[in-house]
Design goal:
With about 200 residues, this protein is α+β, with helices and mostly antiparallel strands. It has helices at about 1-20, 35-45, 55-70; strands spanning about 75, 95-100, 100-105, 105-115, 120-125, 135, 140-145, 145-150, 160-165, 175-180, 185-195. It has a 6-stranded mixed sheet, with helices on one face. A 5-stranded antiparallel sheet has the order 3-4-10-6-7, with no helix packed on it. A hairpin with a 2-residue loop joins β3 (about 100-105) and β4.
Length: about 200
Amino acid sequence: MMLKSAFKQSLLATGVALLLAGCGAPVEEETPDTAALESSEDALLNLLPACEEPEELEHVVEHACLHAEYGPFEPVTAAALGAPVLVDVSQAHTAYQVTLPKRSQFNYAGRVSFLPDESGEFAFMLSRHRGLRIFEAATGIEVARECRYNIPTNVCSGLKTALIADLEADTEYHLEFRSLLPSNAAFTLIIEEAGHHH
């Protein structure tokens, strides 16, 4: 008797659900789990090795932190992927407030240009945990990032991540940023030299 009652309730619930769906009742729209997608992309970024001498990098970060707090500030909107890159972020000691263009409902992406005047290691410091990809502008070849430094809040509360890359003087690079969440589509970028070639 109990089994028959449970079967009837189940059948009744299924019938009501079908009736509501057939009559045009609002159905919840499926959306991608953006937090899960973003954290999986962050996991790939975390495969970069940690910077071996963070105490040397801390001096660079502390200096950049002053710019993150006091400026000078330069608001820029990144060029959409596939569009000509006309936005330049080569000025040292500048806190660029980058906004990424929206590509779709769940996707933001853009590029800016960087032209170092000296060869060496550069620290790309961001106010978000998401990273960046660096490409030679002329060839489209991706430049390897050497290491990642998660900036402790006691060192700087305005910056979260530093990525180190070895770049050549007078070579234009495109810095590519992506985001799935609107909260990561606007951020601060500060680029400082982290080491010279001898």
